[in-house]
Sequence to fold (112 residues):
Amino acid sequence: MNIELRVDRNFEHFRSQKLAVFAERILRKLHQNPYLSIPGDALEPLEAELARFQRVLNNPELKRKARTEAIRKAEIPLRQVLSGLADLVEKSAPCKSDIYTTGFRPASESRK
Fold:
């Protein structure tokens, strides 16, 4: 029985610090995952974008509106990298429980 596994894309709605924490968790779990073989060069863009995003979040010189605009601009490439990793997990995960070990959630039919 060949079932198509899909990753829940709820992370596309995360903002600022919540997105950073989620990306850190994904990076940590993918590094330590014994069940999936994710190439190391697939994680380098996530590391780079996460470091850039953290610099924007921790920049004390940005105030109010400029800070919000900078964070929104920095979120876009981070979400794109996370989406690419979700696609990679969908292709390489042999079963649904292996998706849980990456930090992502499998998509279910009942969730809207």
Remarks:
- The helical segments are 16-32, 40-57, 64-92, 96-100.
- The chain has four helices and no strands.
- The chain has one domain: 10-100.
- The first helix runs from residue 16 to 32.
